C-alpha cells in the first residue's frame, strides 16, 4: 500500500505542478498584449537589436525629438552605420553623432551591462527601452537588475511581424517564441546569480 500511496502522491503533485505552470504561463502570455504608453521624453533611446521593426521605431522616436541619442545594442560585430541604415530614409535627416551602435553584447544581460556603461559616460538619468512586446517583460527585469535604481526605465514595446500577439496559441511559430521566452524569464534569477558568481 505504501508504494501505491507514494505513486498516487507523486501523480497528484505532478498534476498540481503542471496546473501551476499552465496558469503561470497564461499569466505571462497575457502581458504580451500590454500596451506600453510613451508619456514623457528621455535622455536616451535604447533599442535591443534582433527583432523586426525595433530599429525603425527607435529612429522614428529619435527623429521626433523624443530623446537626443539612440543606442542600438547588440547590433553584431560586423554591423556598421551604413549596413544598418542603408534602407532607412529617416537617417538622412539625423546626424550620425546622435546614434551609437553597440556591437559587443550577445545577450539581453550583456545589453544591459553595455548600456549601463554608456549611460554613465553620457550622464543619462532615464531611458526609453525598445524591444518586442514578447521580450519586454524579461528585458525590464534584467535592466532593472543591472541599472541603478534611480534610473528611470520607460518600456516601449512594439508588435513584431514574426509574432502574432492576438492569436499566438494558434500559430506554431508564435507559440514557440512565447514558450522559449517564458522559460528564459522564469530561469532569470538563477542565470543572473550564476553570472554574478562568474560561473557562466
Helix content: 40-55%
How are the strands of the biggest sheet laid out side by side? 3-2-1-4-5
- How would the global form be characterised? elongated
Spans of 5+ residues with little confidence (pLDDT < 50)? none
Give me the strand/helix succession.
HEHEHEHEHEHH
Count of DSSP E strands? 5
Strand content: 5-15%
Helix/strand/pairing category: alpha/beta
Query: What's the gyration radius in Å?
Result: 20 Å
| Most strands sheet | 5 strands, parallel
Q: State the helix count.
A: 7
Describe the protein.
The chain is of the alpha/beta class and 200 residues long. It is 48% helix and 14% strand. The protein has 7 helices and 5 strands. It has a 5-stranded parallel beta sheet, sandwiched between helices. β1, α2 and β2 form a beta-alpha-beta unit. α4 crosses α5 and α5 runs parallel beside α6. The chain is elongated, with a radius of gyration of 20 Å. The N and C termini lie far apart (46 Å). The relative contact order is 0.15. The mean pLDDT is 87.
What's the SSE blueprint?
Layout lengths: L1 H29 L13 E5 L5 H10 L6 E4 L7 H5 L13 E4 L5 H15 L3 E7 H14 L5 E7 L13 H15 L1 H9 L4
Parallel strand pairs: 1-2, 1-4, 2-3, 4-5
Helix pairs in contact: 4-5, 5-6
Any key phrases for this structure?
5 strands; single chain; 200 residues; 7 helices; alpha/beta; five-stranded parallel β-sheet
